[in-house]
Design goal:
The strands form three sheets. Strands 11, 12, 13, 14, 15, 16, 17, 18, 19 and 20 form a ten-stranded mixed β-sheet that branches. An eight-stranded mixed β-sheet has the order 1-22-9-5-6-7-8-2, sandwiched between helices. The protein is of the alpha/beta class and about 675 residues long. It folds into three domains: about 200 residues, Glucose Oxidase, domain 1; about 375 residues, 3-Layer(aba) Sandwich (Aminopeptidase); about 35 residues. It is about 35% helix and about 20% strand. It is built from 20 helices and 22 strands. The termini are close together. α7 packs across α14.
């Protein structure tokens, strides 16, 4: 006879296996109890050489009672901060209420705040919204690390993006916000005496960040014995190229090639990185450079430009510039080391001595009355004659293109604006540089580094005729200036004009709908086109190695289309290879016939940039020479909503359950000890 306790064990295991195996029932039960909230984005942890910024939770997460807070209602804030009877609270706010004043009030009551949930429906910003960036972006890593910022470029700054928070902050989709509000309205709305009774609607939030302390500590832990990675340096490709191939000079290679260098920055920032759209900062600069490249490239495609008859024109879209000039400082670092470009048998090495003119396009979308400003270094940083030539040439072409250029010269009380040019001027005094902007002393952009720096701010509904006309005129002048400085004949230059339709299309694709026809035409396969998202802008946060934001691919292919030409013999077919190290071939969709593809050739390259600090392993806190920003590794964050009963009822339920368990085990023990008397064998 089989012992009774074995029968009990077998029955228990059978029941257990049935419960474990029935996934559908288990999932159904889970969904009846819990509601998983979809996250649009969330605040993450970053570190540099001195400290950490951002958000996170403990490894076990945090739980809070849901409460909606109206920014205009001080009673709501007081309720979660002091008077509410069921802390900690998961505070829910509207997007337009997301500002430093409100968030810092929550920080001051952090013991009662479990987390912040934000309604993520992007809309026209209100006057209460701010720039979460710093007053003087990148100040410690440019030309003025040892001096006070003058002027204060970002007068609307709150610095919120560079603070550390003791609770998580999430931004949600509108559909999930409706479910949260329904649960709150049903269970959590306080009555007149500010009390609520059980059951309560709560959320559990988990977004544990592995990085802690600073980058030095985090990288040391990541390089430990067990191979675990706690943080990654900010790095990703940036795009550069030239109109014609850069070939080595005959004879003395030390002679300068007098390169005309055009630059813009491809990345931007925001408190929520996956909502970093940067309409004014600096999508406007990007599209102007592309429109200028298209106008210049058109002359090349018509065989009006001859390489041997002009100086080289080089263009670069820097990446990581928002995070202490990662892209530009790495390029300068490699030039100084004689390692740029690091392509075997590729373009001839060129260095800082080869750059004669440096024209950088920054924020250009908020010009007042067609007025733009050319910021130039003083004569101790840059050769006076060539600097004057650069400014005068651009000013002359500005007049012809119907806009006004005002000179802003660096003085002891007026510094250069945040720009990649500063990285180059730190290492060389032989470059004539100019930073073109729409502002004189303070940013015209009230939402620099904010999620509100979006299409709604600059280009709503893909319509803003004064904006596109202004940017087209600027692009025309930039193209003509580059060709004039490169030594091209005036007879050719007078025919160079940027296309307003290109400006319109690019702004709409970058800021409104990345799944636009203009971008689709760049991509040869459906797999590539599937990466574009309808009615969503391109995210331009630099991120870390391996994430490969799709914006780099789009920037590269746009540069190919505008500066290159159809490959001879492959106008209606895919490229036979990737080309050579010097000349690259790129297969794209035929813009005129989407059922066919074509091959383009161009001198356009990707260049993965990581701060020199991670190359040298130099995290010196005092020098502030190179960026040390790293991003934490994290597990996938989750927010789960559920309803809980009274704590006392839960205690009673647990007590009764324990009593039943004890009684059950006592009964089993009693029966087992007397099994032969209870069950008489026949």
């Amino acid at each position: 006879m089989v012992p009774f306790n074995y029968l009990l064990l077998a029955s228990f295991l059978a029941l257990l296996s049935q419960g474990v195996g029935d996934t559908a029932q288990r999932d159904t039960l889970y969904k009846k109890i819990y509601r998983t909230i979809n996250l649009r984005d969330y605040c993450v942890r970053l570190t540099n050489a001195t400290h950490a910024i951002g958000c996170g939770t403990s490894e076990s997460g945090t739980t809070g009672t849901i409460h909606f807070v109206n920014d205009d209602d001080d009673d709501d804030v007081q309720y979660v901060s002091s008077s509410g009877k069921h802390p900690p609270y998961a505070v829910v706010i509207q997007l337009n209420a997301f500002n430093s004043g409100l968030i810092r009030r929550f920080v001051n009551s952090s013991a009662r705040i479990a987390g912040v949930l934000i309604n993520g429906t992007l809309q026209q910003p209100s006057e209460g919204n701010q720039s979460p960036a710093l007053e003087c972006p990148n100040q410690q890593f440019g030309l003025y690390s040892d001096t006070k910022c003058s002027p204060v470029w970002n007068e609307h700054a709150s610095g919120l993006s560079y603070e550390s928070f003791p609770f998580p902050i999430y931004i949600l989709n509108a559909e999930d916000m409706e479910d949260i509000y329904d649960c709150y309205k049903k269970f959590n709305v306080p009555v007149k005496d500010d009390t609520i009774t059980y059951p309560l609607c709560k959320v559990n939030m988990q977004s544990f960040m592995y990085a802690a302390g600073d980058t030095t500590t985090c990288m040391r832990r990541s390089n430990g014995l067990f191979g675990a990675v706690f943080c990654d340096p900010l790095e990703n490709p940036q795009v550069w190229g030239s109109l014609f191939p850069l070939v080595q000079q005959e004879g003395d290679s030390s002679v300068s090639r007098e390169i005309v260098f055009l630059a813009a920055k491809m990345d931007t920032s925001a408190f929520f990185h996956q909502m970093a759209y940067g309409a004014e900062n600096d999508a406007t600069g990007i599209v102007v450079l592309f429109a200028a490249l298209e106008a210049i490239g058109e002359q090349k495609r018509k065989n009006r430009l001859k390489q041997e008859a002009m100086k080289p024109i080089v263009f670069t879209f820097f990446n990581g510039e928002e995070w202490d000039y990662i892209g530009s400082s790495r390029m300068v670092y490699d030039m100084v080391k004689g390692k740029f470009p690091d392509i075997e048998n590729g373009p001839a090495d060129f260095n800082l001595m080869d750059i004669k003119y440096f024209l950088e396009l920054r924020q250009l979308g908020l010009s007042s009355g067609g007025m733009f400003y050319g910021h130039q270094p003083n004569d101790t940083r840059s050769p006076q004659d060539t600097s004057n030539t650069l400014f005068n040439t651009l000013q002359e072409n500005a007049v012809k293109s119907d806009w006004v250029l005002e000179e802003v010269k660096e003085t002891s009380s007026s510094q250069l604006p945040p720009a990649s040019l500063q990285s180059f001027l730190k290492a060389s005094t032989n470059i004539a540089g100019l930073v073109l902007t729409d502002h004189h002393e303070q940013f015209a952009n009230k939402f620099y580094g904010s999620i509100f720096d979006s299409e709604y701010y600059v280009y709503p509904n893909c319509t803003n005729l004064p904006l596109t006309r202004n940017l087209t005129n600027v692009a025309s002048a930039v193209a003509r200036t580059a060709l004039r400085l490169a030594g091209v004949d005036d007879g050719i230059i007078e025919n160079v004009t940027a296309k307003e339709d290109t400006i319109k299309q690019l702004l709409c694709c970058f800021l409104h709908n990345s799944n636009c026809t203009y971008f689709q035409d760049l991509l040869a396969t459906d797999d590539q086109r599937d990466k574009l998202t309808t009615n969503v802008p391109l995210v331009r946060y630099v991120s870390v190695d391996g994430s490969t934001p799709f914006v780099e691919s789009i920037i590269k292919l746009l540069a190919v289309r505008f500066s290159g030409r159809l490959a001879s013999g492959y106008e209606h077919t895919k490229c036979p290879s990737d080309g050579t190290d010097l000349r690259k071939w790129y297969t794209m969709q035929n813009a005129d016939n989407h059922s066919r593809i074509q091959c383009h050739e161009a001198y356009v390259y990707e260049y993965t940039v990581k701060s020199p600090a991670f190359v040298d392993g130099n995290y010196d806190k005092e020098k502030n020479q190179y960026s040390t920003w790293a991003e934490s590794v994290w597990d996938t964050p989750t927010v789960v909503m559920y309803v809980v009963s009274d704590d006392q009822l839960e205690d009673v339920t647990l007590g009764v359950g324990c009593m039943v368990l004890v009684v059950w085990f006592a009964l089993v023990f009693f029966v087992t000890r007397r099994i032969e008397k209870v069950f008489i064998e026949q």
